[in-house]
Amino acid sequence: MLKLGILGLGEGRSTMSAALNSSKIELKKICDLNEEVCKKRAEEFNFHAYTTKYQELLDDQDIDAIAIYTPDKLHATHVKLALEHGKHVVCTKPFIDDLKDANTLLSLAKRSGKKVLVGQSSRFFEPMKRQRADFEKGLIGELITIEGYYHADHRWFLDKPWSLENNFKWLYGGLSHPVDFIRWYLPNIEEVMGYGMLSSNGKQGGLKHEDTMHFIFKAKDGRIARVSGAYTGPVQPVMRDSEMSCILRGTEGCSQADYMDLRYAITTSAGEEQIITWEHKLKHYFRFEGKSHHAGEYQNYLEYFADSLAQGNTAYPDIAEGIGTVVLLQAMDRSLKTGQPVKLRDLYEEYSLGISL
Ligand SMILES: NC(=O)c1ccc[n+]([C@@H]2O[C@H](COP(=O)([O-])OP(=O)(O)OC[C@H]3O[C@@H](n4cnc5c(N)ncnc54)[C@H](O)[C@@H]3O)[C@@H](O)[C@H]2O)c1
């Protein structure tokens, strides 16, 4: 059993549910700066071991791993502290939001011998898992191109004060999901360019940075991909357009994994068309009200992490892969600012990151 502490109990609520429902995880203690939030979660799950001091999780010898769900800008500090105290780490996306912290974390992880799993939750969602398995079986042949998107009416998110701060960007908070899909299939992206804008809804809501973005990518081998995101306006009905989706176009077939409705479709080389949904798993994935929480995906990745640790294997995305995605996000950010294509090599050099990341 992996003995877990959880930091940050907004989205960490889903992690509590995941841990308390898993035979592979033992939840030891939860932590949030805000005591009211601690009390609310303690009540909800009848789990009363809470603290408002992160140091208490760090000093607890009975905790093997800390799962971090604090606002984006705090991840680097919280991951660093966990590694310094000899804990394994699960950190939600975006892993970090500035590459200036990357080298410190990479060398600390190496020195401590502790493992880091980046919680790119969407990889652990049923349709995306099936798409990956079919791809690995060769059902669509060789990948030609990939398209990912994540569009959502996230106006409700603007009630969180940190979403209106200057350091919050939907580029990191939202696009980290489809960008992770791109790197999962095309890890060697060498150049990116894109355009973005802040919509009138976003401006009115108090957002400081782009909430509407389109990007294209070029991999070293010449293959291309694209990603888009829009976060502050209505979306299409789910049956017409799932909010998050990943489309793989291959030499022999094509597949699409949709977040909403747990939907997956594939056309194979034999010309067979199949659409699959997982009605019986809806309750695993969507446990509370609505569909904007991720307890099922978190349970999947926490159990994968527990198994990997028990077997002495690395769980992915690990710290290097997670930082690789942040390099890409930061390159996208630079392209928005300059209006020019950006080469990832420049960022690897500027931040003295090994190009093998
Ligand atoms: N699909 C996903 O993987 C997914 C979904 C939603 C959110 N997230 C991520 O989870 C993180 C948190 O988002 P959220 O929506 O829960 O935000 P939130 O504001 O609802 O919750 C964050 C919590 O962290 C607490 N906190 C802040 N600083 C702290 C500190 N120093 N020590 C202890 N607690 C502290 C706050 O009191 C708050 O309760 C973000 O990085 C976000 O991107 C991931």
TrEMBL record:
SUPFAM superfamilies in the record: Glyceraldehyde-3-phosphate dehydrogenase-like, C-terminal domain, NAD(P)-binding Rossmann-fold domains
Gene3D superfamilies: Dihydrodipicolinate Reductase, domain 2, NAD(P)-binding Rossmann-like Domain
Segment forming the signal sequence: none
Any Pfam family hit: GFO_IDH_MocA
GO molecular function: nucleotide binding; oxidoreductase activity
InterPro entries in UniProt: Gfo/Idh/MocA-like_OxRdtase_C, Gfo/Idh/MocA-like_OxRdtase_N, Gfo/Idh/MocA_oxidoreduct, NAD(P)-bd_dom_sf
Domain Gfo/Idh/MocA-like oxidoreductase N-terminal per the UniProt entry, residue ranges: 3-119
Domain Gfo/Idh/MocA-like oxidoreductase C-terminal: 166-344
Keywords per UniProt: Oxidoreductase
Record-stated family: Belongs to the Gfo/Idh/MocA family.
Protein name: Predicted dehydrogenase
Record organism: Olivibacter domesticus
